[in-house]
Write a structure and sequence with these properties.
Mean pLDDT of chain A: 92
Radius of gyration of chain A: 13 Å
Helix content of chain B: under 10%
Radius of gyration of chain B: 13 Å
Distance between the termini of chain A: 37 Å
Order of helices and strands of chain B: EEEEEEEEEEEE
Oligomer: heterodimer
Number of helices of chain A: 0
Number of strands of chain B: 12
Order of helices and strands of chain A: EEEEEEEEEEE
Largest interface: A-B, 28 and 25 residues
Low-confidence stretches of chain B: none
Chain lengths: 115, 113
């Protein structure tokens, strides 16, 4: 079974631009979560989607948004990029939401560099 | 709110040495606890997990026991290999948090031959 895939793997943007990142979950998984990883702040939760609905949201400004499609694929968008948005963005998928035996599987991430 | 504290690295060991990475947490109720590992240039891989007090998670020679009384979930391995060099993250998932994981800061482990 294919794992979680994220595209693109690397991205370079300039301040003020916007960017869209894509995540394809493991087949059959309906929950997708996004995390931002930086050296200074570590791993921080962005948001979680299940069946096309946002179920949970972290403490990020409104410039960060996401959505999930009917095939469970998810995108996240960052508008008006700032230098501090440079990070590794990780996507994780799981079968359900919050199940005690549920496991989240992470993709390789998208490395975003903002110049 | 929920939080996870783990020992800062880097931790440098010789092959076959014993590894311990301390992890303590703050959470209401009984969260599920996890250890994830990140190899260079890759995403996170689940190493092991425990969902209730006194559970022991184990995988690939690594073990961790959910200690409610000390709010801890320390990771141990009896004999490390060079291939265990990676960054290790302790994480928790609250019962009412859906799939949201709260991570510790990560501990870099370097195993020398």
């Amino acid at each position: 079974k294919a794992g979680v895939t994220q595209t693109p793997r690397y991205l370079i943007k300039t301040r003020g631009q916007q960017v869209t990142l894509s995540c394809s979950p493991i087949s059959g998984h309906r929950s997708v979560s996004w995390y931002q990883q930086t050296p200074g702040q570590g791993l921080q939760f962005l948001f979680e989607y299940f069946s096309e609905t946002q179920r949970n949201k972290g403490n990020f400004p409104g410039r960060f948004s996401g959505r999930q499609f009917s095939n469970s694929r998810s995108e996240m968008n960052v508008s008006t990029l700032e230098l501090g948005d440079s990070a590794l963005y990780l996507c994780a998928s799981s079968l359900l939401v919050g199940g005690e035996t549920d496991t989240q599987y992470f993709g390789p991430g998208t490395r975003l560099t903002v110049l | 709110g929920n939080s996870v504290t783990q020992m800062e690295g880097p931790v440098t060991l010789s092959e076959e040495a014993f590894l311990t990475i301390n992890c303590t947490y703050t959470a209401t109720g009984y969260p599920s606890l996890f250890w994830y590992v990140q190899y260079p240039g890759e995403g996170l891989q689940l190493l092991l997990k425990a969902t209730k007090a006194d559970d022991k998670g184990s995988n690939k020679g690594f073990e961790a026991t959910y200690r409610k009384e000390t709010t801890s979930f320390h990771l141990e391995k009896g004999s490390v290999q060079v291939s265990d060099s990676a960054v290790y993250f302790c994480a928790l998932r609250g019962k009412a948090a859906g799939n949201k994981l709260t991570f510790g800061g990560g501990t870099r482990v370097l195993v020398k031959p």
